[in-house]
Specification:
CATH topology: Glucose Oxidase, domain 1
Shape: globular
Order of helices and strands: HEEEHEEHEHEEEEEE
Low-confidence stretches: none
CATH architecture: 3-Layer(bba) Sandwich
Strand content: 25-35%
Number of strands: 12
Radius of gyration: 14 Å
Length: 164
């Protein structure tokens, strides 16, 4: 993985690329065992149903970050330890969940980057409802498939071009 710091990327590329670096509002907590991660964005839009999350993380994810727009729901978890293990095994760099995760203690020991709003002990429903590879907006930023995401201890950046 390339070494980077989001403040440095922000400073460097705001000057060079204008408004191509977008900063996500500081609303996410850090959960995974990997403190910093980056990759190409793959998106999901769903609500309280993690069927598509399992499907996506079951595929190869080398160099990719799964961005899950869960509508900001605080009523159930969309990612748990089993999905984090699946993601790690398939090479995913990280997962950003606009919603909740569970099994946070176990996820902290898994070598994958995870950001979410909060934790919730209840699992989601499984009806297979949602959309994949569509632009999603939360945290003041639109995430489009193919964008590049950079997350570390200081925050999350999104860019149309690779930065690091």
């Amino acid at each position: 993985m390339t070494s980077f710091k989001t403040p440095d990327l922000c400073d460097q590329f705001e000057r060079e690329l204008g408004k191509s670096v977008r900063v996500v509002a500081p609303m996410f907590q850090r959960y995974g065992g990997r403190p910093a991660f980056c990759g190409e964005v793959v998106t999901l839009k769903l609500f309280e149903d993690n069927s598509l999350v399992r499907e996506a993380l079951g595929e190869g994810g080398v160099g990719k970050v799964l961005v899950v727009d869960g509508g900001g729901s605080l009523r159930c978890a969309l990612v748990g330890d089993q999905l984090a293990i699946l993601a790690q095994g398939n090479g995913w760099e990280g997962i950003v969940v606009y919603g909740c995760i569970r099994d946070s203690g176990d996820i902290a020991a898994i070598d994958i980057g995870v950001r979410a709003i909060a934790t919730h002990p209840q699992k989601s429903i499984k009806k297979g409802i949602g959309e994949r590879n569509v632009a999603v907006t939360f945290g003041g930023v639109t995430f489009a498939p193919g964008n590049h995401l950079y997350a570390d201890e200081d925050g999350i950046l999104v860019s149309e071009q690779p930065l690091a």
